[in-house]
Predict the structure of Serine hydroxymethyltransferase.
Amino acid sequence: MSYLADYDPEVYDIIEKERLRQINGLELIASENVVSKSVLEAVGSIMTNKYAEGYPGKRYYGGCEFHDMVENLARDRLCKLFGAEHANVQAVSGSQANQAVYFAFMKHNDKMMSQDLSQGGHLSHGSPVNITGKWYSVSHYGVDKETEMLDYAQIADQARREKPKMIVCGASAYPRTIDFKAFKEIAEEVGAYCTADIAHIAGLVAAGEHPTSVGVVDFTTTTTHKTLRGPRGGAIMCSDEYAKDIDRSVFPGMQGGPLMHVIAGKAVCFREALTPDFKEYAKQIIKNSQAMANVLIGEGFDLVSGGTDNHLILLDLTNLSENGDHLTGLEAETFLGEAGITVNKNTIPREKLSPFVTSGLRIGTPAVTSRGMKEKEMEQVAVWISRVLKDVCKNRSSKTEIDAVKKEITEFASKFPLYPEVA
Ligand SMILES: *Cc1c(COP(=O)(O)O)cnc(C)c1O
């Protein structure tokens, strides 16, 4: 029985349409996932009714005893998951987690160094259009022109020249392993704080499938909704030395009352991530993206950096052209969308087009892996991607492969329900 369907059929119908979209299509957006029913239940719970400004044991409102319990549980589980001394689970998003770290340890116009947005970084790493780029003085590093990977010697040189107060590492569209120890060494040499933003790879790090930043760099920020497969939100980890400053920066520095229903959902997510099943899941995410990468390479596609170590692939479309103009990221995103494959356009190193058009495509496996797909299915998905892109590249108005692939995908997707137990 649905209260919402009775009371507000307009909103109910929209949610129902979205549910069908998620079920019938293939979600290959690298930053998305499918949360468990338990996480959904916690996030949809009455924990949302309460104001709980402050921290467990030190709230500004009465009646917080159970909110204290759930926030303590979330913090303890997150510390256990990553071996952290201190965790703050109140940041409502990854961006706010980053802002809180900057705000705690940098002053207006202090210099930070971070990966360029157009070469895999994130808005909240000092992009000129973001508050972080307007508030701090930013020097960006990119990837090496040849290897399209991070070059730590180049980054070290830049750090020596720029002398930043903080070095930020971590990315949104970087398919390779990040060497957090190298970043920390560079930061130490130039007397900078080091922040690792593991928003994308947190699930892989938690499972031991990517080297950790916790206990290596000074601050680790993350989202909880990407590979970690929890509710939409952020978190920060650090040593006890910095605990007070970080907590104060999140509240009252950045936010008022925390989203306690989401913190309940985070607690559930961290419990799930501590299980052996989750370790298997994280392994499978990588196997899946590598299986897909191999087929795409075999089909003649260019992958930025030539492959992947993690959950995502960055396709370089600049060689995908029949008669001059190459297929853009925007076109590829649109055509694949029509076929039931959801991906996002993405800038690539040495991008010549605007961020609204781009020459690249980011493809990620966390969500389809959550639906139970394995290497065999990923190979099939890669073939579908190849069929659609090659066909529309020849003729932008062709619907032949789009229509054929859409039919095949609808049938295929029905074998991998989002929530098997409710079908
Ligand atoms: C996704 C992401 C974030 C934060 O995203 P929000 O949408 O603000 O939660 C921060 N850093 C990186 C590297 C990301 O990929």
About this structure: The radius of gyration is 22 Å.
